[in-house]
Amino acid sequence: MWTERFTERKSGRLEPIGDGLLAFVPNPLPPQLDWTDELVARLGDAREALARLEEASGGLGADLVSGLTSAFSGREAVLSSRIEGTVASVGEVLLFREDAAAREQRSARREVWNHWRALRDGLKRMDQPGAPPLSKRLLQELHATLLSGVRGRDRTPGEFRKLQNHIGAPGSTIDEASFVPPPPPEMISALNELELYLHTPSPLHTLVRAALVHYQFEAIHPFSDGNGRIGRLLIPLLLHNDRVLTRPLLYLSAYFERTREEYCRRLFEVSSEGRWLEWLVYFLKGVAGQARDALRRCQRLIELLDRYKETVEKPGRSALAVKLVEHLFEEPYLTIGEAAGALEIGFASATRLVMQLVGAGVLMEVTGQRRNRIFGAEEIVRLIEAELPEE
């Protein structure tokens, strides 16, 4: 580990693990924070951007909110996985869900799809009446989903590690590592303290708590694999759990992926030099930027929905065409059988509606097959994936 970079201001202690090696054990949360003018301003900016997103999404119908939530969580799964070196597009992952043959293959699509499932499962848990708060048990369940049927499935899915791990370049040994998390006994103690912090009322705003919790989880690194993705899942789950954002439309992996070098450096400097202020400023800057991005993306998707409705709302056409268009914003790829199920109509009627949307340019057949055809709203997918310029 880069022990020479750890100063007296480090946010934990260095623990011997044998053979002259050291591991880092983080101090319990919360740290003593220096509320500078810059930090106060960043928090205010982030809160304002979130409030605007919350207000705008509050005026949307439940079905559209569900569709946007699905779209945004899918994009988050893609970008969070990309940080770990797993590359797939939103369209590929959406299509993966529909393609039975692809689901039998171990691939990047399956890894991202698992991430998406874990995020959606976690959000659903937060919405259940009397749902328990964030806990170690929930993290284990999400981890089991994340590693189901993919590489890493032999790395004890759903179980906290029992061996020492380390962070470094691919193939590096522990003595070459840039960072060594706590050994297993101290890791369990640190996890217990983190869970206690999550369950204890705090005067800190949830955005600040989310930044602290994300760092702490990454420093503890409790799983043998998948820690980065689970750590990033914690952010939207905590925001949604505390109802800071009742509609889960804010995700930070796009920001972390775009500023990956700074992201890793800020996390390390909290451990090595206690630079909480710099980490919080960086984190809150990302919240504000991604909240504004989410708002613009919502607006563009709503404009696209309105345009599609105008296209299909013509005399002599079934009102079910509009319902199918709305459904596409939640499920951009579907089969005719799925369209029939969503609209509760017969297969023949669903075929006519799907082909009507194909003729209108809303849908296109994407498999090139005569049987088991899948139809996709490619324009919706492109808008979900697009890099929007900052305004």
Corresponding CATH superfamily of the largest domain: Fido-like domain
Shape, per Cα inertia axes: elongated
The average pLDDT value, as a whole number, equals 86
State the CATH class of the largest domain.
Mainly Alpha
How would you name the oligomeric state of the polypeptide chains in this document? single chain
Q: What's the end-to-end separation, in Å? A: 41 Å
Task: Give the number of helices.
Answer: 16
Helix content: 55-70%
Compute the number of structural domains: 2
Label this structure with key terms:
59% helix; 2 domains; Fic-like fold; mainly alpha
3D structure, described in words:
The protein has two domains: 3-296, Fido-like domain (Fic-like fold), CATH 1.10.3290.10; 314-385, Arc Repressor Mutant, subunit A, CATH 1.10.10.10. Helices cover 59% and strands 5% of the residues. It contains 16 helices and five strands. The strands form two sheets. Strands 3-5-4 form a three-stranded antiparallel beta sheet, sandwiched between helices. A two-stranded antiparallel ribbon has the order 1-2. Strand 1 and strand 2 (21-26) form a beta hairpin. Helix 8 runs antiparallel to helix 9, helix 11 packs antiparallel against helix 12 (276-312) and helix 13 (320-328) crosses helix 15 (347-359). The longest helix is centred in the last third of the chain and has 37 residues, at 276-312. The two termini are 41 Å apart. Mean pLDDT is 86; it is low at 100-106.
